[in-house]
Amino acid sequence: MKIDTGATAWMLAASALVLLMTPGLAFFYGGMTRAKSVLNMMMMSFVSIVTVTIAWVLYGHAFAFGTNGNSTLNKVIGGVKEIGLQSLINSTQPTGTGDKTAIPSLVFSMFQLTFAIITVALISGAIADRTKFGAWVVFTFAWATLVYFPVAHWVWGGGWLSQLGIEDFAGGTVVHVNAGAAGLALAFVLGKRKGWPKEPMRPHNLGYTLLGVGLLWFGWFGFNAGSEVGVDGTTALAFMNTQIATAVAAGSWIVVEKLRDGHATTLGCASGAVAGLVAITPACAFIDPWAAMLLGVVVGAVCAYAVGLKYKLGFDDSLDVVGVHLVGGALGALSLGILARYATAGTAQGQGLLYGHHGFKQLGLQALGPVAIGLYSFCMAWVIGKIIDKTIGFRIEEEEEVAGIDIAVHAESAYDLAPSHGGGALAAASVAAASQAKVEAEA
Amino acid sequence: MKIDTGATAWMLAASALVLLMTPGLAFFYGGMTRAKSVLNMMMMSFVSIVTVTIAWVLYGHAFAFGTNGNSTLNKVIGGVKEIGLQSLINSTQPTGTGDKTAIPSLVFSMFQLTFAIITVALISGAIADRTKFGAWVVFTFAWATLVYFPVAHWVWGGGWLSQLGIEDFAGGTVVHVNAGAAGLALAFVLGKRKGWPKEPMRPHNLGYTLLGVGLLWFGWFGFNAGSEVGVDGTTALAFMNTQIATAVAAGSWIVVEKLRDGHATTLGCASGAVAGLVAITPACAFIDPWAAMLLGVVVGAVCAYAVGLKYKLGFDDSLDVVGVHLVGGALGALSLGILARYATAGTAQGQGLLYGHHGFKQLGLQALGPVAIGLYSFCMAWVIGKIIDKTIGFRIEEEEEVAGIDIAVHAESAYDLAPSHGGGALAAASVAAASQAKVEAEA
Amino acid sequence: MKIDTGATAWMLAASALVLLMTPGLAFFYGGMTRAKSVLNMMMMSFVSIVTVTIAWVLYGHAFAFGTNGNSTLNKVIGGVKEIGLQSLINSTQPTGTGDKTAIPSLVFSMFQLTFAIITVALISGAIADRTKFGAWVVFTFAWATLVYFPVAHWVWGGGWLSQLGIEDFAGGTVVHVNAGAAGLALAFVLGKRKGWPKEPMRPHNLGYTLLGVGLLWFGWFGFNAGSEVGVDGTTALAFMNTQIATAVAAGSWIVVEKLRDGHATTLGCASGAVAGLVAITPACAFIDPWAAMLLGVVVGAVCAYAVGLKYKLGFDDSLDVVGVHLVGGALGALSLGILARYATAGTAQGQGLLYGHHGFKQLGLQALGPVAIGLYSFCMAWVIGKIIDKTIGFRIEEEEEVAGIDIAVHAESAYDLAPSHGGGALAAASVAAASQAKVEAEA
Amino acid sequence: MKLITAVIKPFKLDDVKAALETFGVKGLTVSEASGYGRQKGHTEVYRGAEYKVDLVPKLRVEILVDDDDADDVIDVVVKAAQTGKIGDGKVWSVPVETVIRVRTGETGAEAL
Amino acid sequence: MKLITAVIKPFKLDDVKAALETFGVKGLTVSEASGYGRQKGHTEVYRGAEYKVDLVPKLRVEILVDDDDADDVIDVVVKAAQTGKIGDGKVWSVPVETVIRVRTGETGAEAL
Amino acid sequence: MKLITAVIKPFKLDDVKAALETFGVKGLTVSEASGYGRQKGHTEVYRGAEYKVDLVPKLRVEILVDDDDADDVIDVVVKAAQTGKIGDGKVWSVPVETVIRVRTGETGAEAL
Ligand SMILES: Nc1ncnc2c1ncn2[C@@H]1O[C@H](COP(=O)(O)OP(=O)(O)O)[C@@H](O)[C@H]1O
Ligand SMILES: Nc1ncnc2c1ncn2[C@@H]1O[C@H](COP(=O)(O)OP(=O)(O)O)[C@@H](O)[C@H]1O
Ligand SMILES: Nc1ncnc2c1ncn2[C@@H]1O[C@H](COP(=O)(O)OP(=O)(O)O)[C@@H](O)[C@H]1O
Known about the structure:
The complex is a heterohexamer, with three copies of chain A and three copies of chain D.
Chain A: H1 5-32, H2 38-65, H3 73-76, E1 92-94, E2 102-104, H4 105-123, H5 133-156, H6 160-164, H7 172-190, H8 206-225, H9 233-261, H10 266-280, H11 289-306, H12 309-313, H13 321-339, H14 359-391, H15 398-403, H16 405-410, H17 424-428, E3 431-433, H18 436-442
Antiparallel strand pairs in A: 1-2
Chain D: E1 2-8, H1 13-23, E2 28-36, E3 42-46, E4 49-53, E5 56-65, H2 70-81, E6 90-95, E7 98-101
Antiparallel strand pairs in D: 1-5, 1-6, 2-5, 3-4
Helix pairs in contact in D: 1-2
One adenosine-5'-diphosphate sits between chains E (7, 35-39, 56, 58, 86-90) and D (27-29, 62-64, 101, 103, 112).
């Protein structure tokens, strides 16, 4: 098929944008931890790029988007032909615009890879400050393989959920419910941080968190508007709705805060924006601007309360992966059952309660998606987590946790800002570069 | 009209780029405040995204770019058909390249929305450290509605200024003079910060400021080269000229500093780059590379002096919105009257003194633009500001200002970096998570 | 030729992406210095944007990509027609996709300009904390003029190296070996920092370094996939391979660290990613995904050891420009001699040992490139550096170095974070805004 | 009047504050410090180069008390700050000649 | 010799420095501290969870003076640091046995 | 028992620590401070406005020692911290009444 250079240009840009979201997430999360664990938090995101990329090239693309020629088996898993991505070179993939043009298959693969990466990275927010790094590396491989790749296949690769007619434009369930449920499971497997919730664990650098939101918001345009895999009016609608729901949800969250706590906070604004991004993700291409606004109002307010649940229920979902991604993602997916208007252009297929003839059926389907994926992901993450915990151990020592995971696990500290003689007198001046000998010996 | 996927791809990317400029601005500004007010400074930018997006969807696009069928009324304001943006779905907008291709109207709307957002956010630099957050929210709605939307219509929506023949490619007057004049008005309405100019108020984090400049520079390519609304040689020229003027102005500013103060500073380099970006904005598509260079030299030097004016005249334009945006924007707009060569391809229409047959007329028009828009914006901002001040109050209490607006208004502090036991012993160790009960009670 | 709007859209985006890499580099490098020299480190990057842009417009493009009509002279240098870029307006440049479409010449020029900028900026990592700012400014002009522009011509502008058949898709030799060799030369010219290697000089802000890596990685997609100058399957392959090698190299580096030092570090992950980006640069469009993976493994491990060389050999390449860029770039260039499969589509031209009929010849050529360019760059940088050192001096005073270059050279300090009364009581409270009078007097 | 200075582990501050409040001491002044002693610091690694950081983060607490209370307060602090592990810190007391409350100019016991 | 220590509100440092200079004191040493006392701290809110921060930023100023000047210097500091509002801080003095200027090895009054 | 306090140039800390260790002192407590005295600070410039920063970064080292060692320790510190340039700092000593090791409750010389 003929390559549409315009569509491809957009998908190249979109791929880069979505890839940037993971460093963005590293800063969003990193700013919320304490100064002694920011590096570990960021490393959990960065290493997800490493591990998921490797898994993707080796078999991830094949499992998620390959075909295996067996229509029953194909309901649950892709194929093997795409292993190593070799077969994608010089092949093309039709755009989503229905005009018989294509983009190079490797661009599609790259775009999808970035989704897999950030989904895995999102989970890490639930287990801040206390996770063995090696265990996390193992978990990312296992969960991507056993959960993300199949689930992506179910919804986007022609699997059973898509065959049922479930709609998820850019990943409300595949990405956010999926990651949120896994985060919840790991929060249980790892248990509470020492001192939680009695000890205060407030964000150490809200500038980083805002930077993260800025990059996430920016990248999310690629995430959502790129999911059309092409350039047309749907791309445009997805883009605009993303902006609307995000801005409105940020506003909604801080209005709730102002009324409830007396202050509109920076972290609330940032959290609201992310909640809006999450909720609009499945719906962005299917609903009207006013509906995006409505969704923004609802998700901003709901999530502003949902993040308090963990105190009530007593699980230490440290950075609110559940309250924002699981709740927000489910809400967005569900909203389609009511508000979807453009699900499949020109037909009632996939339309919601307000527009479709089979509205209740779609609403049911839209509820089934989060439930099925959420349950699957929760159970699998719990099992994987438990196995890791029983074998190599999933949690660092209590003393390391108190002293700070950055130094214990990565042998680094994030900041050395003291002005005296530049570079932290208290630290640097008392430091001995003990290792040159060692380095030399080994080099 | 047929959608040009290439042009659309660029406009999608450009829209994302310009949206990123507002978080970029948050960091540019945030780094220049003191540590006790950085969050508030950033929140003024972020909340502008919220409020202006809402206003834009509801009526902003309609007011700025709609038509109302009445040619006299249309000189000053757009229409109402586009309210809610519903009518833009599946409609298209011709590209600026004259080849009968189009982009989806919602992409154009999104692109323009990002301009409205950053224009409003720019104003906040004039009133750092002392502004009631609720009052700022009200101001953003009012000023966007009464000033930005109409002014955008006058120049870009077919209104009276464009009918007169004023040229402003990407917003030297609509964005920068407009915001600068409003900033000046608010600096008068709110008055000086306690201690200004006697007390030192030096930037607390120049890294943030440089990050902001990096993101602004990056995003500005979308701003300027996106304003062609299409992809052709003009887009390319706008892009290149943006780079040239910005780099040269940054250099020009630090040369002035080196000669005047003995040091080339980081903040000077950053400020010069922004001044260059501002000045080239109206002119980027109309002038030659050598002229962009000349403009860069002039604006870098002029603004390096202009930021000192506030001490002389005694108004506390805290982060130099006037010295950089009003002065730089006016200079750029004016420069067109002399240097413009390609204003309307193939004709003398809009050419400057050096090239056009009607050069003096164009120079006059180019002077009229900043004056008319500057005056209108200044007066309206002053009136809106005064009304807000007399009703809900525009300024925080003196004690809150001394203690720091972040804690007073947002109940947050930006940094908690102390290494002792991670997360600021002096703060965190002495904190009690008093609120779980409250959260639970309310959740 | 007809402009391909899709290809142009991608090249516009790619140009913006590559431009962003230099601020990204500023943060990557800045985070690794001590707190007292971060601003100077960043300024060396930012001012490179200024100086190289000026040189590029004036004569850089002409020297690198112009033709002079003399085929012998043209082996070593471009022409003069493009001086001032005036002749590029409204002209076009064929895309690299062989389909007879074009992009505006100014877009190509802008894209190439961003390469020149970052190459120069890369060098600064070798001479952190001790370089006179004015001397650096002079050096950037001289080195860009005498080294970068000719070398770019040799490889990409039709010069002698390209005529020999050397392959370098996106700049493994032109950018990385070139910059690395110059960095090595300057490390010798300037000598060691006071106290090196006995005194500890650990990174002061690893968050900045990670931010830098995030932006570099993001921008590098433009760097590599943009080097196709068009949109086709090759663009897609370059993009995907960039991701693969980078992720794998980051992983490879931290595995080496874990085994050797006991800890997988943040800086190691960041460094590995950059090493991967460097090594894949020349090869990205020519090799298979599995080969990109292999290259990633090798370069991550090799560079993890190469950065220790400076201790052994005793030169203070402060931020490891040699260990990462010279070594990584040479490795990538060399790898083509073995792994290249798609160098020129459909022919054995340029294929490596594994595929080509003339494999050893290509391997020899791929060794020649780094050697020739590395030697030329090293010698020229040494000579330029020595001349600067003997005339205006290249190094700051020892006392300034101890006190910190930021204050000595730029009269600024990067951070003022103390919470007491906001904005650093210890600093700000004791400061007197002595200069208003002066400013007024001069304004 | 005595000035009691305690160098303690940072995460013990809350306990010390609580114990002092129970005892009846109403004020104190804290500052960040770093300690060097039997307790070892840690090692950091940057690009393979190892750095020994042998200073350990501590807090330095100062409490002005009446002569009569001094011994009791020292006791209270020592008990509250104790973990039994190396690095728990030191407490010492120094005689003070005058204490003045800046706000009112009160001196001596009134100033506390 | 006496060591006078003042815990003051940070924004008063300039006034204190100026007053001391007028009086004739040429040097001092300052460090960041946090105070706990009658003055209340503030509340921070993160995602609806409230944190009470009850330490208030202060500066800790140390001035070495001759015995004869001690009372006057205390006076000067108290006056300059006073705002009359809760939290103005404390000033106290402690007897010092030796003072040495590191640069020259001078001791006693010469060392100041 | 004596408390010796030294205000020194930050980059001298390593030398001081080494010298004390050689002498036999096993522990000390350090904190960041800023000094004001004969040594001038520096000037910073932001958008053409000049700021005089007249406080200079210093470290404040506290060492508890036995009465007998006090003079020697002072000597050791002064020698190690000396550069001979203005701003080298001061060392002073103050009598201490009690010292307690928090971990064990030991007092006096045992506590050091
Ligand atoms: N001689 C001393 N003078 C001042 N402070 C000391 C001295 N010895 C120890 N300290 C402080 O007490 C802290 C704890 O001492 P350390 O020897 O590590 O453990 P412990 O007191 O439990 O034996 C040190 O970190 C240091 O701050
Ligand atoms: N007993 C004490 N010992 C040491 N410092 C104290 C003591 N009481 C108060 N302070 C210091 O003095 C500061 C002011 O005390 P506070 O009780 O808040 O106000 P005021 O002195 O005006 O009554 C405190 O922040 C603290 O730093
Ligand atoms: N009277 C004083 N009280 C307390 N500290 C002082 C006093 N005078 C000087 N200092 C401290 O000693 C440091 C060095 O003093 P300074 O006058 O600059 O140099 P020098 O001691 O070499 O003459 C100052 O920075 C300050 O921290």
